[in-house]
Amino acid sequence: MTATALAPLRPRTDGATFSALFVVILMVVPARLILRGLPFALTPAEAVGLFAFVWWLCAHLTLSLGAAKGGNPVRTAIYLYAVAYLASYAQAAISYLEPRELELADHIGIIAIAMIGIALLACDGVRGTERIDLVLKTVVVCGAIISVIAVIQYVFTYDITADIPIPGTRIRGEAPAIMERNGLNRVAATTSHPIEFGVVCSMILPIALHYAFAAGQLGRPAVRWWLCVGLIAVGLVFSASRSPVLGLAAAGLILLGGWPHRRRVRAVLTLLLFLVVVRITVPGLLGAITGLFGNIGGDESVRYRTSDYGIALEAISRHPWLGQGHGTWYPPYDIVFDNQYLLTAVEGGIIGVLTLVGLFVAAIWASLRSRWAATDPTTRDLGLSLAAALTVPLVGCATFDLNAFETTSGIAFLFVGLSGALLRATTTTTTREASA
Domain-by-domain residue ranges, the chain? Predict the structure, then answer.
């Protein structure tokens, strides 16, 4: 027998490898950078998402590319979301649209295809819990990396992302990565806004906690994962925004409801210790965050967000079912809603809102169904953590424009797809064990 025959087979590149590459590009490359030479703005991560959509289409025409076949409720929810989006676009396109509106609708449609593509790739191309772990661990590590960037921005008021040149890209807009609120910095790391950065950290934190706890239970080194948890938590606080806190509170309810009693106690004590450390090391930061909730009635941003309901209802009444077309409600020509549900109701109608909510509800159900179906404690905890992470965009859509932020939208659609992959992996394993 030759040495070649004895050598272990190298795992080939699959959907998990491609999804992990998408995560690195999405999170590490600054969101303000777009590709050169295109007639419209397209980030490198969105270009990867478009390729993922093409891969998924080709994979379902053959049996050799490793795409999963058979029914999957998450894939069905993605289909319905895509069909509703296409129907809204078609209705807008056959009616008269100004050239500017049609151009924006085409642009937003391309980005939507990219997000749908990455969700389908993750759902059908990531096969097995080990490959799901690869993608999610990449998300956690990248979350820790951008949190380090956020710490540098906050402490030194220095935007290190401005010194990250990426060949073939150019800068889009002049949105600063460091803002100020109540005399304190608000940082965005590599994302396009502090709110987006905070929501990204809220989505990743439950996943980071899963791997930290799992490493300890399996007798593996856990310090590195707890370091990631700490960095991501610090990044969330440094965003100094309301939406991440609300999202994390919703995720925390899911986690506390599913964790064993001992872990709940540890989590609460750790949270209290973390808050004490933040209060001592960064005076005034916690007060600024709690002040966002203590003065909601007099908060200017809250009044601004709620004052546009009448305008939204009037716009919805003109096209109640399919909306006026995605991308056609565009600031600075139109007001900013800071509410994805309102914006989707205007642009995609009632059907658009139902399919958007259904997308996340189906993904959360699939994650919890995976928890109930799995026999392995680690996989059960992963299902719970993924469900908690998916509640963040579900809640966050009510407080900010999810689809306007590429990083948040990319992570959300990736998690939706991974929930379908996890459901398939756990139900397949359970079926095999039952027939053995």
Answer: 17-67+78-427
